[in-house]
Amino acid sequence: MALWNQFVDVLREAIFAYAQVSHGNLATGILGVTFLARLALFPVTLRLARAAATHQDRVRRIQPELDVLRVRYKQDPRRLAEETQRVFSREGISMFPIGGLVGGLVQAPILLALYSAVRQCASVGGRFFWIADISKPDRLIVVLVAALTGASAALAPQATGHSKALMTVLPALLTMVFLSKMAAGVGLYWGVSSAVGVVQTAIVQRGRTRSAA
Q1: Any idea where the domains of the chain sit in the sequence?
Q2: What value does the mean pLDDT take over residues 5-19?
């Protein structure tokens, strides 16, 4: 716990230091440190996103066969599991990619510590452009960040039809609900993260398009 508190303190002080360089504006400090942290993590997150996209493409290719198995063995769950495992093994595909899980666990402490530091700094308050006080919720920030979240979800490869619409709209709605009760400073942090997510998803999708061409 002491090590965790020290890590959060380092990030908080980095935000304050960056704010001092920016004429004491804490919002600028939050934006700057969040961007730098996301930039440092970007090679890792991009690699994980590409690996996940590759795995998804490989699973999609065997999906027709998996659908046949579901129909054939719908009354026998045990046999269905065995046959599904056999197909994945034959194709050399992992049913539960460990790399993505490990990568997510490695990033989680950093992002959680940054989130804690941002919350502490945002509670101090301060003006930023149209935001009168970054310690209080701001509707425009909520809408903008929700739009970025929705854009990232829309760019991601998903099923077509109602499922795609749901998976695009749902993250945006959840973001709006959550941020509507959070400080605008936290919204700025979330907005930077969402913007990086949009760029990352676009890069991955561009690579997939080139590979398919």
Answers
A1: 2-212
A2: 91
Name the one residue in this structure whose structure tokens are 């099923």. Answer: 159
Q: How many separate helices (H) and strands (E) can be counted in the chain?
A: 7, 0
Give Cα separations from 37 to 22, 170, 190 (angstroms): 18, 27, 13
Of 125, 112, 114, give the one whose Cα is nearest residue 9. Answer: 114
Per-residue b/e over 35-46, b at no fewer than 16 CB within 10 Å? bebbeebeeebb
Inter-residue contact 58 to 91 (CB < 8 Å): yes
**The pLDDT of residue 164:** 63
What single DSSP character describes residue 74?
T
Instruction: Tabulate helix, strand, coil % of the chain (nearest 5).
Output: 80, 0, 20
Q: Give the pLDDT confidence of 60-105 residue by residue, as tens digits.
A: 888 888 888 888 888 888 888 888 889 889 888 887 777 666 667 7
Q: What is the DSSP letter of 22?
A: T
